[in-house]
Amino acid sequence: MAKKPTLAPYPEPPATKEYEHELRLLQIELVKLQKQLIARGDRILVIFEGRDGGGKDGTIKRITEHLSPRETRVVALGKPSDHDRTAWYFQRFVPHLPAAQEMVLFNRSWYNRAGVERVMGFCTDAEYAEFVEMVPAFEQMLVRSGIALIKYYLDISKTEQKARLDMRRKDPLKQWKLSPVDAAAQKHWRDYSACRNEMFARTHTAIAPWTVVRADDKKLARLNVIRNLLTRVDYAGKERSLVRADPAIVFDYADAYIGNGMIAP
Q: CATH for 16-259?
């Protein structure tokens, strides 16, 4: 029986004042990026995936906090309607794709089919097989159309997920985050791991690669996602010393990371 990998060492998180200072500087860089995005008429699509409790909401909030709401959109679709279920799977996502001058951030995306839908039995085996066959071609079309597509997976440990879900249950301001799917997250931990690994193997492509974020510490995850995002786009006045992401936190997916503890088992 193969030995279960242990988590790789995690960098020391920043103190609160240091975090707030770094975050402000990086948010200034994001404003510079958006200014050039608008001037050039670019289109950026950022996908955030990850386990329940992975920190997607908080990371997206820090990215968009000081950006122009006219050119920034966050898309978080609910479960598909009966009408949606009869349509082409990608059809309900297409209207939300970015037009010129826009940055769109998907808080979960079409990859629901590779995760929660598959684990919880919300799609058939045939629907899943069709999805993983079609998604590389779909994303290739997006990129060839001129969209800058960036895919982040926020990865957390089982222990950290349990702590965050317990906090949601106790915090009256976070009750809106609770769902029956959250309740099953720990029970189906291994199923989600298996589906995540297969999703990486089937949809990590040269034209639309996955970037993994070790997100057990929210501060480190937020800072390093923003740094990584800023390296993806050239813009005037970039402070290059600020945008170097820590490779112990953010890295391009590779199979080896599943076995060496960089990705939670």
A: 3.40.50.300
